[in-house]
Amino acid sequence: MSEDNQEVLRLENIKKSYNIGQATETEVLHGIDMRVAKSDFTALIGPSGSGKSTLLNLIGLLDSPTSGELFLLGKPTREMDDATRTALRGNSIGFVFQFHHLIQAFTAMENVLMPLMLAHGKPNKESLDRGKELLTEVGLEKFIDKKPNELSGGQQQRVAIARALITRPALLLADEPTGNLDTKTAADVFALFRRFNEKFGCAFLLVTHDPRLSDSCDQTLTLVDGMLVKQ
Amino acid sequence: MWIEWNIAVKFLREGRSQTALILVGIAVGVSVIVFITALITGLQANIIERTLGTQAHIKIQSPDELNRIVPAAIGTAQLILEDKRAQRLRSINNWQQVITILDALSEVVAVSPVVSGPAFARRGESLESVALVGIDAPRYQKIIPISEDMVAGQFRVGAGNAVIGQLLADNLGLRVGDKLRLDAGFDGFSVVNIAGIFELGVRELDSRYVYLDLKQAQSLLNLPGGVTVIDVTVQDIFTADVAAARIGRLTGLKSESWMETNTQLMNALTSQSLSTSMISVFVALSVAFGIASVLSVSVVQRTREIGILRAMGTTQQQMLLVFLIQGALYGLAGSLVGGMAGYALVWTFNTLGPGLFYIPVANTLVPIAMTIATLTGVLAAAVPARRAARLDPVVAIRYV
Hints:
The complex is a heterodimer of chains A (231) and B (400).
Chain A: E1 7-18, E2 26-37, E3 41-45, H1 52-59, E4 67-72, E5 75-76, H2 82-92, E6 93-96, H3 108-120, H4 125-137, H5 153-165, E7 171-175, H6 183-200, E8 203-207, H7 211-215, E9 219-224, E10 227-230
Parallel strand pairs in A: 3-8, 3-9, 6-7, 7-8
Antiparallel strand pairs in A: 1-2, 1-4, 4-5, 9-10
Helix pairs in contact in A: 3-4, 3-5, 4-5, 5-6
Chain B: H1 2-14, H2 16-52, E1 58-61, H3 95-104, E2 108-123, E3 126-135, H4 137-143, E4 150-153, E5 161-165, H5 166-172, E6 179-183, E7 190-198, H6 203-208, E8 209-213, H7 214-220, E9 229-234, H8 240-251, E10 254-257, H9 258-261, H10 263-301, H11 303-311, H12 316-352, H13 365-390, H14 393-398
Parallel strand pairs in B: 3-8, 5-7
Antiparallel strand pairs in B: 1-9, 1-10, 2-3, 2-6, 2-9, 4-7, 5-8, 6-7
């Protein structure tokens, strides 16, 4: 197995139902099998209501499947307790949301360092250097001490990207990362993703509506009515 | 703990107006508790000092004399017409041994044998009924420090000296150095020299007490070598009844605490303490509800941020801690301000108030209030903190 082919994520027959046991019980995902390897740059597309967000939440260990098993870095995750799951999520997964979702009370730098601080407490010099380096990479070295409300939408999204990468995650999940940005800024953000993908070998999984974005990815998974359709 | 503390502090600082409002609320509550507690404690200390300053905590006397009734023979009926016995002045049996026992008790601070009984004091044509009090001066001073209340002369008994109250001195026209004739109704009388005049501020004592030394009083009252009462003071005046009961069991004597002799006062003190505690509890309760509601609102306002923090690796426990710390900080900061405000109120009362009595503030009052307020804050935060910790990150992130 070549290095590029190392498995980051594997889903085996993942099903997810809501309102279990009630009259309104609905199965949103009907048995998903998929695999993401190191350095993959994948787009997940599909019409609204197809279960994209549900799938992303499951992959991000924010939610548990009703049946099936999800392996992250080879570890089965369905039976994990909250602490182990949270630790695995914190160490291995980075999130970028449509609405940047920074914590308003903290500066750009503190927001970037947050995942490290949550896991290890007060940041050491190495962490501070890494945070600074990432903020420099996203072009925000001058905004280190600014609060989120002092930054533009694009800048905030770039802080969020830096934050997602601070733990050197194996997998970065982005939910409509450019949905809220203008075309130029969106292109910049996408370029950043590409650069980090190459630089750190981190696998990217982007949920998007934007065909230009999905076309630029290495592969595209299409979700229709809770089933994966490979293209 | 570092990051939880940081997040909590930043959250509090960000919600500045909310924080300020609830802090004022807590501060007002704590200042009321501090002030009212200090006020009532001061008032009670004042009352107790005035009452117990002139009496012993426990008085020990011989048991009352009773008629012994011969039991009726079996099978016969008995009609009894009982004439209650008069309680004559009697000495406590083996009082020296009793004092040795009392001295050894840990809760007892001072023990003083006293022989006391009624007498007439005569000077020229005027006659006053008085209470002779024969004392062992050094021991008695530990119970009632009379020498602090002398208005003339010295507190000196023995060798024919006596100390009398101001009112008695006025009634008989006596000054220090004058002579006074005492007659207890037994054979003979004594002429004593007035060595000092005291004023305790209690009419009964100032107009009737004549202090003598033990020996002289014993011979006047015809109780050679005897004492009629043993006065005792204890460390904690509020456990005097327990100590009295214990002494009663140990010695077989009649042992009465100040609580029994001052039932009304005791009732008043107890109800005061009770109402103070009630006020404190209810104020603390409303402070707790205030903290809980502010934090509940904060959890709702920060739902999305909580979701992001959870997504970034905050454990449920960390989330719980963030909100518990906020509750604790509310309690601590609010009570710090409230404690100072309470001090200021007490100071104002002491300096500008009616001046009826002085309110002392115990050094421990504010720290205790702060500790309780902080714990209350943590407890009040428990419910919102649990809600924050249990928020489903998926739902929380989507929350708008």
